[in-house]
Design goal:
This is Glutamyl-tRNA(Gln) amidotransferase subunit A. Residues 22-463 form the Amidase domain. Its EC number is 6.3.5.7. Keywords: ATP-binding, Ligase, Nucleotide-binding, Protein biosynthesis, Transferase. α4 links the parallel β2 and β3. α2 (20-38) packs antiparallel against α3, α7 packs antiparallel against α15 (459-471) and α9 (302-317) packs across α11 (350-363). The radius of gyration is 21 Å and the shape is globular. The longest helix has 22 residues, at 368-389. The chain has helices at residues 6-14, 20-38, 46-61, 103-110, 153-160, 177-183, 217-227, 271-286, 302-317, 336-347, 350-363, 368-389, 415-419, 426-431, 459-471, and strands spanning 41-44, 72-76, 114-119, 166-170, 186-189, 210-214, 257-261, 290-294, 395-399, 435-443, 446-453. By secondary structure, the protein is of the alpha/beta class. It is built from 15 helices and eleven strands. The structure holds glutamine (GLN). Glutamine binds at residues 125-128, 151, 171-175, 203, 310, 422.
Length: 483
């Protein structure tokens, strides 16, 4: 049963081939058996899952239907879940039980999804390797000596290892698409404002966006359908109708204009990945797409701009964790300053502290104009590049990452080397655009992703292109040995 996709599960439940309770029990057993190798879960919510599964079965018995009714999922551990630990991968929130459900959690629960647990992640979603978690590194099921990507590495590893069919993730600079690429999944970062951020613990508020991670585009469509929509509780939520994402999956790609930016094929890109990207371009051409070379001239400035803006916002968002209002409190504080210093010093890991320092510096008097304001101007130039490109093409295609998954620990002493892995993903966050990563082949037995970007609110187009590609390729069906 663990090989089933969300779409197949929906059919199996509708045809009464199995119940949600049976499916949930078998996946919980699989998690207990296999997750010790991967460390992809921070909390497994067995009791809640069985309760939700029984409730879903009862709703079906009463004549209700729906693609998510009885479907097992998990949430990245930064979505607040009422009464359940929501740690954000940090010692700071190790004992935090959220008093309410995030909008995404509540929406999926009301659609009947069954929550198996909360997945491991980089601390406060800062990272590209899932090594900065207080709960330990996550392993890549394709090779247990390699990272699964981050920061939604727990969701990625769990879905790739067939512990469950799909999970939520969040993407501030690539944290859905990059781990999806490194573990052979399909992952979608929606347009900024498409999915509510209410109840998502903030990293960089102007960039954060929740989205689906699954093995197929078809499943991402199902999960996104349950997550998307206007939410009055999120002031940046956008009141746009949510289309039927599954309905457009089979649209023809005849005449689709695909832009391939020439800047993507620079020295930093592994030539074997470049080769696979060219192969995926040819695949789309066979399906009727028209390929065009385009240019994104300001792309080279994206990493420096992001690594000013994201830490700046993080330094402000994380100031609430002071041991008084929120978060871990140190033992025996001598006075107020000692309490702040030690609570934050002991509660936050090294990468989070580094980002808070960078962000506070970039926002401080005298440096604000030179760094933060400059980065915001670059952000606008990057957005303008995309607007120009989308006058000529319908989607943009390229690699998701410059390299396949690296070895655990390989970039630990060099944070900038890890930041450079975000080169293809962060521009979509800076511009607020939707992006999708899908499996495109293997290098040294490790998965490679191809990224598609589309204009605002064109998630349906991304899912359509990915689904058509997946009907004609079989990379996404490959299973890691041992899982
Ligand atoms: N790797 C990027 C960072 O560390 C992106 C993380 C994310 O998208 N949450 O900031």
């Amino acid at each position: 049963m663990h090989q089933l996709t969300l779409a197949e599960i929906a059919r199996g439940l509708a045809d009464k081939q199995f119940s949600s309770e049976e499916l949930t029990k078998s996946l919980l057993a699989r998690i207990a058996q296999l997750d010790p190798q991967l460390n992809s879960f921070i909390s497994v919510t067995e009791d809640l899952a069985l309760e939700q599964a029984k409730a879903a079965d009862a709703r079906r018995a009463n004549g209700e239907s729906g693609a998510l009714l009885g479907a097992p999922i998990a949430h990245k551990d930064l979505f607040c879940t009422q009464g359940i630990r929501t740690s954000c991968g940090s010692k700071m929130l190790d004992n935090f039980k959220a008093p309410y459900d995030a909008t995404v959690v509540a929406k999926l629960a009301s659609a009947g999804a069954v929550t198996l647990g909360k997945t491991n992640m980089d601390e406060f979603a800062m990272g590209s390797a899932n090594e900065s978690s207080y709960y330990g590194a996550v392993k890549n099921p394709w090779n247990l000596e390699h990272v699964p990507g981050g920061s939604s590495g727990g969701s990625a590893a769990a879905v790739a290892a067939r512990l469950l069919p799909a999970a939520t993730g969040t993407d501030t600079g690539g944290s859905i698409r990059q781990p999806a690429a490194l573990t052979n999944l399909t992952g979608l970062k929606p347009t900024y404002g498409r999915v509510s951020r209410w109840g998502m613990i903030a990293y960089a508020s102007s960039l954060d966006q929740g989205g689906p991670m699954a093995r197929t585009a078809e499943d991402c469509a199902i999960l996104l359908q349950g997550m998307a929509g206007f939410d009055a509780n999120d002031s940046t939520s956008i009141d746009e109708p949510v289309p039927d994402y599954s309905a457009s999956l089979n649209d023809s790609l005849q005449g689709l204009r695909v832009g391939v930016p020439k800047e993507y094929f620079s020295a930093g890109l592994d030539p074997r990945i470049a080769e696979l990207i060219h192969t995926s371009v040819k695949e789309l051409e066979k399906l009727g797409a028209v390929i065009k070379e385009i240019s994104l001239p300001n792309m080279q400035h994206a990493i420096p701009a992001y690594y000013v803006i994201a830490p700046a916002e993080a330094s402000s968002n994380l100031s609430r964790f002071d041991g008084v209002r929120f978060g871990y409190r140190c033992e025996d504080p001598k006075n107020l300053i000692d309490l702040y210093k030690r609570s934050r010093g002991e509660g936050f890991g090294a990468e989070v502290q580094r980002r808070i320092m960078v962000g506070a510096y970039a926002l401080s008097a005298g440096y604000y104009d030179a760094y933060y304001l400059k980065a915001q101007k670059i952000r606008r130039l990057i957005k303008n590049d995309f607007m120009t490109a989308f006058n000529e093409v319908d989607i943009i295609l390229g690699p998701t990452t410059p390299n396949p998954a690296w070895k655990l620990g390989a970039k630990n002493s060099d944070p900038v080397a890890a930041y450079l892995e975000d080169v293809y993903t962060i521009t979509a966050n800076l511009a607020g655009l939707p992006g999708l990563s899908m499996p495109a082949g293997f290098v040294d037995g490790l998965p490679v992703g191809v990224q598609l970007l589309a204009p605002y609110f064109q998630e349906g187009r991304l899912l359509n292109v990915a689904h058509q590609y997946q009907l004609n390729t079989d990379w996404h069906t490959r299973t890691p040995t041992g899982f």
